[in-house]
Protein backbone atom coordinates (compact mmCIF):
# COMPACT_ATOMS: atom_id res chain seq x y z
CA UNK A 1 0.00 0.00 0.00
CA UNK A 2 1.44 3.41 -0.91
CA UNK A 3 1.90 6.25 1.57
CA UNK A 4 -1.03 8.29 0.14
CA UNK A 5 -3.46 5.41 0.73
CA UNK A 6 -2.31 5.09 4.36
CA UNK A 7 -2.80 8.84 4.93
CA UNK A 8 -6.31 8.72 3.39
CA UNK A 9 -7.28 5.77 5.62
CA UNK A 10 -6.01 7.58 8.72
CA UNK A 11 -7.85 10.80 7.80
CA UNK A 12 -11.16 9.00 7.08
CA UNK A 13 -10.77 6.87 10.22
CA UNK A 14 -10.08 9.96 12.31
CA UNK A 15 -13.11 11.76 10.89
CA UNK A 16 -15.38 8.80 11.66
CA UNK A 17 -13.94 8.52 15.17
CA UNK A 18 -14.48 12.25 15.76
CA UNK A 19 -18.06 12.04 14.50
CA UNK A 20 -18.93 9.04 16.65
CA UNK A 21 -17.05 10.39 19.65
CA UNK A 22 -19.17 13.56 19.60
CA UNK A 23 -22.35 11.60 20.22
CA UNK A 24 -23.69 9.63 23.10
CA UNK A 25 -26.74 7.48 23.31
CA UNK A 26 -29.90 9.15 24.54
CA UNK A 27 -32.54 7.53 26.68
CA UNK A 28 -34.17 6.00 23.60
CA UNK A 29 -30.99 5.17 21.70
CA UNK A 30 -30.96 8.34 19.56
CA UNK A 31 -27.62 9.97 19.01
CA UNK A 32 -27.25 13.07 21.22
CA UNK A 33 -24.43 15.63 21.23
CA UNK A 34 -21.99 15.21 24.11
CA UNK A 35 -21.38 18.17 26.41
CA UNK A 36 -18.23 20.17 25.65
CA UNK A 37 -15.08 18.67 27.14
CA UNK A 38 -13.97 21.94 28.74
CA UNK A 39 -16.14 24.76 29.97
CA UNK A 40 -15.17 28.25 31.06
CA UNK A 41 -15.31 28.57 34.82
CA UNK A 42 -15.14 31.67 36.95
CA UNK A 43 -11.62 30.61 37.91
CA UNK A 44 -10.46 31.01 34.32
CA UNK A 45 -11.93 34.48 33.76
CA UNK A 46 -9.61 37.29 34.82
CA UNK A 47 -11.09 40.43 36.34
CA UNK A 48 -11.46 43.39 34.00
CA UNK A 49 -11.51 47.10 34.74
CA UNK A 50 -7.88 47.53 35.81
CA UNK A 51 -4.58 47.25 33.93
CA UNK A 52 -1.41 46.85 35.98
CA UNK A 53 0.64 47.94 32.96
CA UNK A 54 -1.14 51.28 32.50
CA UNK A 55 -0.85 53.01 35.86
CA UNK A 56 -1.84 56.65 36.32
CA UNK A 57 1.14 58.91 35.61
CA UNK A 58 0.70 60.49 39.05
CA UNK A 59 1.40 57.09 40.68
CA UNK A 60 4.36 56.38 38.40
CA UNK A 61 5.85 59.78 39.23
CA UNK A 62 5.13 59.67 42.98
CA UNK A 63 6.66 56.20 43.37
CA UNK A 64 9.35 56.69 40.70
CA UNK A 65 8.30 53.44 39.02
CA UNK A 66 10.18 52.37 35.90
CA UNK A 67 10.61 49.55 33.39
CA UNK A 68 7.19 47.88 33.27
CA UNK A 69 7.59 44.26 32.17
CA UNK A 70 4.63 42.05 31.28
CA UNK A 71 3.75 39.72 34.15
CA UNK A 72 1.54 37.25 32.31
CA UNK A 73 1.11 34.05 34.26
CA UNK A 74 -2.04 32.96 32.44
CA UNK A 75 -1.34 29.30 32.99
CA UNK A 76 -3.21 26.04 32.92
CA UNK A 77 -3.34 26.07 36.71
CA UNK A 78 -6.27 27.21 38.79
CA UNK A 79 -5.16 30.81 39.46
CA UNK A 80 -4.04 33.24 36.81
CA UNK A 81 -2.43 36.70 36.70
CA UNK A 82 -2.04 39.43 34.13
CA UNK A 83 -0.32 42.77 34.60
CA UNK A 84 3.20 44.20 34.85
CA UNK A 85 6.24 44.13 37.08
CA UNK A 86 7.66 47.55 38.00
CA UNK A 87 10.84 48.69 39.75
CA UNK A 88 11.68 51.70 41.84
CA UNK A 89 15.30 52.52 41.07
CA UNK A 90 17.24 52.04 44.29
CA UNK A 91 14.08 50.74 45.94
CA UNK A 92 11.44 48.04 45.84
CA UNK A 93 10.05 45.95 43.00
CA UNK A 94 6.33 45.51 42.47
CA UNK A 95 4.13 43.16 40.51
CA UNK A 96 0.77 44.85 39.86
CA UNK A 97 -1.77 42.51 38.31
CA UNK A 98 -5.33 41.33 38.15
CA UNK A 99 -5.71 37.79 39.42
CA UNK A 100 -8.33 35.10 39.75
CA UNK A 101 -7.36 34.78 43.44
CA UNK A 102 -10.32 35.53 45.70
CA UNK A 103 -10.45 36.78 49.27
CA UNK A 104 -11.79 33.38 50.34
CA UNK A 105 -8.76 31.62 48.83
CA UNK A 106 -6.37 33.88 50.71
CA UNK A 107 -8.18 33.32 54.01
CA UNK A 108 -8.13 29.55 53.44
CA UNK A 109 -4.41 29.44 52.56
CA UNK A 110 -2.49 27.95 55.53
CA UNK A 111 0.83 29.09 54.00
CA UNK A 112 0.23 32.81 54.56
CA UNK A 113 -0.06 35.13 57.53
CA UNK A 114 -2.85 37.66 57.22
CA UNK A 115 -1.50 40.96 58.48
CA UNK A 116 -4.62 43.05 57.96
CA UNK A 117 -8.16 42.87 56.61
CA UNK A 118 -9.74 46.19 55.74
CA UNK A 119 -11.41 48.11 52.95
CA UNK A 120 -9.83 50.39 50.38
CA UNK A 121 -12.04 52.45 48.07
CA UNK A 122 -15.02 50.47 49.38
CA UNK A 123 -13.52 47.11 48.42
CA UNK A 124 -12.53 44.29 50.81
CA UNK A 125 -8.75 44.08 51.07
CA UNK A 126 -6.32 41.59 52.59
CA UNK A 127 -2.62 42.21 53.27
CA UNK A 128 -0.66 38.95 53.66
CA UNK A 129 2.80 37.40 53.50
CA UNK A 130 4.59 34.10 53.83
CA UNK A 131 6.28 33.75 57.24
CA UNK A 132 9.71 33.02 55.74
CA UNK A 133 9.46 36.26 53.71
CA UNK A 134 8.32 38.60 56.52
CA UNK A 135 10.01 41.95 56.05
CA UNK A 136 11.16 41.04 52.53
CA UNK A 137 7.94 40.60 50.55
CA UNK A 138 4.24 41.19 50.99
CA UNK A 139 1.05 41.04 48.96
CA UNK A 140 -2.20 42.91 49.05
CA UNK A 141 -5.34 41.80 47.26
CA UNK A 142 -8.22 44.18 46.60
CA UNK A 143 -11.47 42.43 45.74
CA UNK A 144 -12.79 42.59 42.17
CA UNK A 145 -15.41 40.65 40.25
CA UNK A 146 -13.88 37.20 39.41
CA UNK A 147 -10.86 37.75 41.69
CA UNK A 148 -8.73 40.68 42.77
CA UNK A 149 -6.20 43.33 41.99
CA UNK A 150 -2.96 41.98 43.44
CA UNK A 151 0.09 44.02 44.36
CA UNK A 152 3.16 42.01 45.33
CA UNK A 153 6.12 43.92 46.80
CA UNK A 154 9.70 42.76 47.15
CA UNK A 155 11.90 45.01 49.28
CA UNK A 156 15.31 44.46 50.88
CA UNK A 157 16.51 46.34 53.98
CA UNK A 158 19.63 47.47 52.07
CA UNK A 159 17.64 49.33 49.39
CA UNK A 160 18.57 53.02 49.44
CA UNK A 161 15.10 54.48 48.82
CA UNK A 162 12.80 51.92 50.43
CA UNK A 163 14.88 49.71 52.74
CA UNK A 164 13.52 51.45 55.84
CA UNK A 165 9.91 50.55 54.93
CA UNK A 166 8.08 47.27 55.47
CA UNK A 167 6.89 45.81 52.13
CA UNK A 168 3.33 45.52 53.50
CA UNK A 169 3.26 49.29 54.10
CA UNK A 170 4.44 49.91 50.54
CA UNK A 171 1.78 47.52 49.19
CA UNK A 172 -0.95 49.27 51.18
CA UNK A 173 0.17 52.72 49.99
CA UNK A 174 0.09 51.55 46.35
CA UNK A 175 -3.33 49.96 46.85
CA UNK A 176 -4.66 53.22 48.28
CA UNK A 177 -3.47 55.01 45.12
CA UNK A 178 -4.64 52.35 42.63
CA UNK A 179 -7.88 50.86 44.03
CA UNK A 180 -9.87 54.05 43.34
CA UNK A 181 -8.92 53.68 39.65
CA UNK A 182 -10.62 50.27 39.30
CA UNK A 183 -13.67 50.69 37.09
CA UNK A 184 -16.98 50.57 38.92
CA UNK A 185 -18.69 47.19 38.63
CA UNK A 186 -15.38 45.39 38.12
Mean pLDDT value: 81
Number of domains: 2
Shape: globular
Query: Could you tell me the number of beta strands?
Result: 9
Helix percentage range? 10-25%
SS strand fraction? 25-35%
The CA-CA distance between the termini, in Å, is 61 Å
The largest sheet, given as strand count, sense and whether it forms a barrel, is:
7 strands, antiparallel
Number of helices: 4
- Structural class designation: alpha+beta
- Give the strand order of the largest sheet, numbering strands 1, 2, ... along the chain: 3-4-5-9-8-7-6
Give me the Rg, rounded: 24 Å
Helix/strand order? HEEHEEEHEEEEH
Model regions low in confidence, pLDDT < 50 over at least 5 residues = 1-41
What does this structure look like?
- There is one protein chain.
- The protein is α+β, with helices and mostly antiparallel strands and 186 residues long.
- The chain folds into 2 domains: 3-33; 42-181.
- Helices cover 24% and strands 32% of the residues.
- The protein has 4 helices and 9 strands.
- It has helices at residues 3-21, 57-63, 103-108, 167-178, and strands at residues 23-25, 31-33, 65-72, 81-88, 93-99, 113-120, 123-129, 137-144, 147-154.
- The strands form 2 sheets. A 7-stranded antiparallel sheet has the order 3-4-5-9-8-7-6.
- A hairpin with an 8-residue loop joins β3 (65-72) and β4.
- It is globular and about 40 Å long.
- Residues 1-41 have low confidence and may be disordered.
- This is DUF3558 domain-containing protein.
- Residues 24-45 are annotated as: Disordered.
- Pfam families: DUF3558.
Amino acid sequence: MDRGAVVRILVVGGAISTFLGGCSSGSEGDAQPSPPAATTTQESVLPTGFDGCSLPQSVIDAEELRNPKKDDRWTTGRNKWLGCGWIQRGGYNASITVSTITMQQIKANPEVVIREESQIAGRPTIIHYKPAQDGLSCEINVEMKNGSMEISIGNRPNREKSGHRHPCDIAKDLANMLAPTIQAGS
